């Protein structure tokens, strides 16, 4: 009778010693690198703070000085040179006043830039007095065209009114007996004349505005023309 075969264990191959050596070397290298990194990250020594307090005393400390919080402090390097100047800490009221001054200064700068842009646009459009005078004349001529058209229309309405008045002569004794159509035509004629006269008055107002604007521009342009490089007087 044959004995049953016994279960045999497969031998385990021994781990290569080189792998453990490599891991150990990496760990050693990592630790050395970390130590070097920590050593290089050590912060530099702090500065020296100095100020003159409200009583005129010069104070010195290795940290910001609370007694000088309301005034300028200087942070010095170890060799005595100035590293930075620390401005005073403002109270809430002082901070609001400071911000208000900053806003006003910003608005002033913006206004100055706007003036410069307007001046540049103005002198670009009117490089000399002749161009400015021509611009004034052109705008006035446009209003005069409207005035002339309104005056011509008033003349036409005057002719129409004469014909209506001649027709009303038949009812001179009793104007109430005049036809409604005739009375309405007289009313329309009078309103049309009034409309044209208002248009003429509006154009006269526009002419005054044009003169005022061009006069103000001329005052502004005089120094700009004088400052142009090619316009300097010759000696």
In short:
The protein is of the alpha+beta class. It has four helices and four strands, in the order αββββααα.
Structural write-up:
This protein has 235 residues and is of the alpha+beta class. It folds into three domains: 48-86, no CATH class; 91-125; 129-225. Helices cover 62% and strands 8% of the residues. It has a four-stranded antiparallel sheet with strand order 2-1-3-4, with no helix packed on it. 3% of the residues are buried.
Residue-averaged pLDDT = 82
Helix content: 55-70%
Distance N to C terminus:
142 Å
Number of strand elements: 4
User: What is the number of independent domains?
Assistant: 3
Q: Which percent band covers the strand fraction? A: 5-15%
Rg calculated over all Cα atoms: 48 Å
Low-confidence stretches: 1-9, 11-44
List the keywords.
alpha+beta, 4 helices, about 240 residues, 4 strands
Layout of strands and helices, then pairs:
Blueprint: H1 17-40, E1 48-52, E2 58-61, E3 73-76, E4 82-86, H2 92-125, H3 129-168, H4 180-227
Helix pairs in contact: 3-4
């Amino acid at each position: 009778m044959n004995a049953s075969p016994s279960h045999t264990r497969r031998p385990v191959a021994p781990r290569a010693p080189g792998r453990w050596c490599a891991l150990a070397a990496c760990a050693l290298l990592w630790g050395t690198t970390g130590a070097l990194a920590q050593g290089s990250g050590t912060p530099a020594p702090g500065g020296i703070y100095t100020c003159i307090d409200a009583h005129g005393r010069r104070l010195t400390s290795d940290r910001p000085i609370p007694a000088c919080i309301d005034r300028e402090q200087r942070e010095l390097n170890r060799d005595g040179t100035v590293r930075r100047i620390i401005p005073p800490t403002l109270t809430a009221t002082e901070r609001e006043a400071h911000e208000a001054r900053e806003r006003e200064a910003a608005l002033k700068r913006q206004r100055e830039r706007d003036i410069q842009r307007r001046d540049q646009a103005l002198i670009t459009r009117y490089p000399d007095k002749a161009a400015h005078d021509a611009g004034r004349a052109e705008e006035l001529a446009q209003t005069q065209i409207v005035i002339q058209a309104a005056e011509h229309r008033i003349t036409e309405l005057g002719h129409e009114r004469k014909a209506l008045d001649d027709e009303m002569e038949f009812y001179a004794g009793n104007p109430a007996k005049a036809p409604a159509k005739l009375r309405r035509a007289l009313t329309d004629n009078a309103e049309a004349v009034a409309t044209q006269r208002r248009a003429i008055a509006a154009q006269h107002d526009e002419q005054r505005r044009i003169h005022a604007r061009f006069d103000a521009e001329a005052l502004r342009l005089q120094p700009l023309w004088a400052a142009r490089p090619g316009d300097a007087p010759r000696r």
